[in-house]
Amino acid sequence: MKTIVIDPGHGGYDYGAVNGSRYEKNDNLRLSRIVAQKLTDCGQRVIMTRDTDAFVPLLERSAISNNNRADLFISIHRNSSIAPEANGVEVFVQRYSPETTVSYARNVLNQIVAVGVQNNRGVSSDNFSVLRNTVAPAMLVELGFISNYTDNLLFDQHLDAYADAIATGALQSLGETCTPPATPGGGTNTAKQIQQTLNTRYGAGLAVDGVFGPKTKTALIKGLQTELNRSFNAGLVIDGVFGPKTKAAIPSVKRGANNNLVYILQAALYFQGYPIAVDAQFGPGTEEAVREFQRNKGLTVDGIAGPNTFAALFG
Q1: d(C-alpha 236, C-alpha 310), whole Å
Q2: End-to-end CA, the chain
Q3: Is residue 186 scored above 50 in pLDDT?
Q4: Which of 95, 98, 252, 255 is 20 to 30 A from 242 (CA-CA)?
Q5: Structural domain includes residue 142
Q6: In angstroms, rounded to a whole number, what is the distance separating the alpha carbons of residues 30 and 62?
């Protein structure tokens, strides 16, 4: 077992790069949570410098790693540019880093590129505080430009696959192998379990690969429409398109509910980067995830998933 520190860049009043209502700090946290869960599922000791929307000073981030004698430190960010055409993925290491650190960064970058990116910008060096002040081999991943439309599209479509790539590159670098738990319990296993459930329950015909792509999103919407028809006589066409009629049919789903609508809500939240239990029971963990999602999307924060919350998840 190794100790790996995952550092979601920015947080709290430090938004990072901004593109309209999209804040880098939120993207960083979404991705970091899934990376952390995947590494935990693989038997590693994982420490996050923040797991909420909180501001953490740069020196404190390095101190967390140093005090825990981490074997690897990965800071996760999104890039930005005044030129909207700027795009691609890049991994930074500290200037004059040893070849071992550079090779670790290269491993992670290669895994990300294999998922699919617009542009491989390579491994670069800089003097960022979290790299300069961290004792463990440290890297800073810039996963696409938040200022670029296609990079954002790729980020959202391949969120789980990018997380898996970072985790795989980290394990490869540290000479660790992943032995998933016997029963699904998070990370890639949870994603695959969701896809299998969609296949069994709704005949979705998905490849059970743990990747949240357009087909899985469509299958979730079809499942939602099916449940709205079954339980609320919505009379919807099962087409996998979240349109006005589907939105209008959404009831208020809140704490205490235990049904397939809750399962679909949890699955959608999970694929958006909120690694909650996907068990069809709307408990305190699901309520908190809904609240955080609403906060991140600028919605009324009440912990109740109604038409606007579902529209933000599927629209």
Answers
A1: 16
A2: 41
A3: no
A4: 255
A5: yes
A6: 21
52 is written with which tokens?
Answer: 């909420």
pTM greater than 0.70: no
Which whole-number Å values give the CA distances from 171 to 81, 167, 177, in the listed order?
31, 6, 6
Query: How much helix, strand and coil, in percent to the nearest 5, is found in the chain?
Result: 45, 15, 35
> What is the 8-class DSSP label of residue 305?
B
Range of the domain at 34: 3-174
- Regarding whether 241 and 151 lie in a shared domain, the answer is no
Please name the residue that has the structure tokens 């394990």.
171
Residue 219's alpha-carbon distances to 216, 223, 297, 309, in angstroms, are 5, 6, 23, 18
pLDDT tens digit string along 81-124? Answer: 999 999 999 999 999 999 999 999 999 999 999 999 999 999 99
Kindly state the tokens that stand for 140: 């800073």
- Residue 182 domain-assigned (yes or no): no
As for how many domains the chain has, the answer is 2
CA 88 to chain centre: 18
Task: Give me the pLDDT at residue 179, please.
Answer: 58
